[in-house]
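REQUEST FORM: STRUCTURE PREDICTION
Request ID: SP-0412
Submitted by: Lab K.M.
Chain count: 1
Length (residues): 523
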Amino acid sequence: MKTIKQLILPTLTLFLVFTGCKNDIDAVENLNNPDRTQVLANGSDLIGIISGGYVIWWQGNNRDLIPALAVAGDHATCSWGNWGMRVLSNEPRNPIQNTSSWSDLTVLTQPWGGNYSAISSANDVLEAIANGIEWIDGGTDKTPIVEASAYFLKGLSYGYLGLVFEKGFIINPGDDLSKDFSYVNYQELVEQAVLELDKAIEVAENNTIIIPESVVNGVAISSSDLIQLCNSYKARFIVQGARNLSETNAIDWGSVKTLTQNGINQDFGPYGDDGISWWSRSYVLNNSPNGFGRFGARLDMRVINLVDPNQPSFFPASSGSTLTNPQITTADNRFGVGKDFEFKSDILFRSERGRFHFSHYINTRYANDINFSDGADAKQIKTFTVEDNRLLLAEAKARLNELDNISGAAFDINEGSRVTRGNLTPLSGGETKEVILDAIFYERYVELFNTAVGSGFFDRRRTNQLQIGTFRHLPIPATELEVLEQELYTLGGVSADPQGITPHYDLTSSNARTDDSNIPAFN
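STATUS: Completed
RESULT:
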């Protein structure tokens, strides 16, 4: 059997990727030479190795995966065939075409390979530190900076593996990569992420550190910053890792409340470098000059229906059909000319690919908000916002469903984007738990659009709001299964796997629906 060592890029490669500013992780050269040992023996180079790991982690999760999950979760909508969008948003839903010949397999291979390459980088650095390698700079021991960075990187990587994939491996520093590794499920991957983030917190609590801007591009991270980030990310992975409403209800919401209360107080994310290494494919979901422009993905009708309940949840699919009142009526200040979402009378998608893809609203926040990036400029690419943390805190309070928690949840919501940016009527605090949760998810779908990868998909998944036949997580990529000499499988498909959780290998595709006699249901 092939070994997992063949699936992971060597640490030296990651170091060269960072120092050489490689742009495409799919084009990384797999180097096998003795210089790897020399690099790991150089304490001053450890920060470069870990920085390379962050580049690979970022690119693995923030490229082709972004549009794929956005359309599969009915957060955005698009008929174009790039990055799996047309295949994964077909109505009725089709299975993932998990074969090595699928032209969009990078939707699977980028997050799988990127996260495991980042873990490999972090493990090699931690093993070097355990073997006595130190980073001494000007007489100051900066080894804790590298150690905390490595644990944080492992936590992020295992967390996204747990959010995205059905299962995976856990690999520790010093493990013999020639041996067979047993699979663990997504819940164990999330648990491992929490363990690694706790280790990063421990280092940060015991040392005064500042992770330099070269690690997460343009962002210096102090000990207190890192502790807050770890708390927020633990909350994200625990909450959004749930695969259905039952798992959501079973979450320890008291713990999530504590984590988010001690979470971030400033938006987190790298600063873009104009499309060299630090960029994201969120520009596909904008009317962005870096992406498709006016042809870009639109805001899905299911979100538009939340904003204006008089709008349908699905655009009429019959040939030549239109909306009676295409412009929404809303008091939400984020909709309108010069706002986050602008109305476009023309819809530039191809009708024959399914009019259910249509929508009149496109995201233009990057153009109208000086603090918001389109994903490929030099501004901060917000991947974990204060508002996201605030909404997780409010949700924890609401799900605890005690009087003071319900009123506290309303207070948190009123302090945030609902009022400050949306200019919507503040909640009174006397609402029911259900009304509070509706307000929270409204903000998660509107305010958090084009921030964290997969946010809308994960939120629909954990509340049983994915369309029937939508995969609930990704399978291990076919190319990796072939290397491991394991049986190929896939997930999803309205006929083959309506719940999106049963491995199978029926790649039968259904034709796109052409009328409204069979509106999709949810699982």
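NOTES: Residues 332 and 422 are 5 Å apart (CA to CA).
Reviewed by: T.R.
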